[in-house]
Amino acid sequence: MRRWALVTGASSGIGRELARLAAADGHDLVLVARTEGPLQALGAELSARHGVQAVVLAMDLSGRVAADTLVCELERRQIVPELLINSAGIGAFGLHRAIPLAAEQELLDLNIVTLTRLTKRLLPALLARGSGRILNVASVAAFQPGPYMAVYYASKAYVLHYSEALAHELEGSGVSVTALCPGPTPSGFQARAGMQLGRTLRRGVPMMGVAQVARRGYRALLRGQRVVVPGVLNALLARTVRFVPRRWATAAVALLSRPR
Q1: Dihedral, CA atoms, 66, 67, 69, 75, nearest 10 degrees?
Q2: pTM of the predicted protein model
Q3: I need a surface site. Which of 17, 114, 202, 210 has the fewest CB within 10 A?
Q4: Where does the pLDDT of residue 139 fall: very low under 50, low under 70, confident under 90, or very high at 90 and above?
Q5: Which domains are delineated in the chain?
Q6: Which residues on adjacent β-strands are paired with residue 112?
């Protein structure tokens, strides 16, 4: 049997690096994102380098039925992924009252609805096999509220809590769930979200590279670790926020993120 890994958001950033790691590990790939050119280039690169098969599916995953469409395509090709890597996600930056509703609806559909539906649709096959691994890309944003990115922070809190709860339910089944919670990374996410980094962040908060973040996440996935927060500072902040008043944590995020 071929060992397949399904990677969403594979055209850039953390998703692209996770696809490279899965290919190096001998997995054939289903690469999914909305931009076909970068996906085709990545698929050709990994096929040539590692001798794996790469199926490229250029599709917009933010639609409510996108996950069902993707699963139907997998079934048509008789592909049953052993690894599910939910890396697709977007943000929206600014005052909640000023961000268009359509932009935040797209964020919720991609970050929450598609991730959940795709996991739910593919989970029965993993359970029937008695093995499989799921990696959901959350964020350190999941650990506290985030003024100026209120819906994005809330969506990542959902991903984290959903992943942890599902991991508990699946204990002993042979299927594991891992939530990867990176801090800010130079992945192009900020530009697409329309972010203008606040004064403190503009002074140079250190960022981990996407390849390093992906390696930490992939290792945690293979170990079946439930939550991984790459970077000592990020891990410290994620833990510290539990011991301070939530109002203070919210104010600190606002100070760091406040627009120019």
Answers
A1: 160
A2: 0.91
A3: 202
A4: very high
A5: 4-257 (3.40.50.720)
A6: none
